[in-house]
């Protein structure tokens, strides 16, 4: 089954959209929020941009979940993910 792309890490990890699936790569809970700067209640008020910064810095959308994440499977890696890693938290 083709999965949906996580709005934070860009990996193809979500079985559905907006159904509170948790991305296993960055631990973002997909509550259906796709505005970069809108706070997400399901993610402790984090917005996607902040969660991305955290993912680049700690390897998880929220630092408290660092131990729960895993590396993406080859099939989950997308151009979005590669681009995100290449931004390296800057620009
Ligand atoms: Zn993710």
State the main characteristics.
single chain; 91 residues; alpha+beta; two-stranded antiparallel ribbon; 2 helices; 4 strands; 22% helix; globular; binds zinc ion
What does this structure look like?
It is a single chain. With 91 residues, this protein is of the alpha+beta class. It is globular and about 30 Å long. It contains two helices and four strands, in the order E-E-E-E-H-H. It has helices at residues 48-58, 79-87; strands at 4-5, 12-14, 21-22, 29-30. Strand 1 and strand 2 (12-14) form a beta hairpin. The longest helix is centred in the middle third of the chain and has 11 residues, at 48-58. It has one domain. Bound molecules: zinc ion. The site of zinc ion has 9 residues, from loops.
How are the SSEs placed, and which strands pair?
Blueprint: E1 4-5, E2 12-14, E3 21-22, E4 29-30, H1 48-58, H2 79-87
Antiparallel strand pairs: 1-2, 3-4
The structure holds zinc ion.
Give the amount of beta strand, in percent.
5-15%
The level of helicity is: 10-25%
Cross-sheet strand order for the largest sheet: 1-2
Number of helices: 2
Report the average pLDDT across residues. 94
Main structural class: alpha+beta
Q: Provide the gyration radius in Å.
A: 12 Å
Number of strands: 4
Bound molecules: zinc ion
């Amino acid at each position: 089954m083709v999965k949906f792309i996580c709005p934070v890490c860009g990996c193809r990890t979500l079985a559905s959209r907006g159904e509170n699936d948790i991305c296993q790569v960055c631990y973002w809970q997909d509550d259906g929020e796709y505005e970069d700067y809108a706070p997400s209640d399901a993610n402790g008020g984090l917005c996607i941009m902040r969660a991305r910064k955290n993912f680049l810095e700690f390897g998880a959308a929220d630092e408290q979940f660092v131990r729960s994440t895993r590396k993406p499977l080859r099939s989950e890696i997308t151009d979005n993910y590669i681009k995100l890693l290449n931004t390296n938290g800057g620009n």
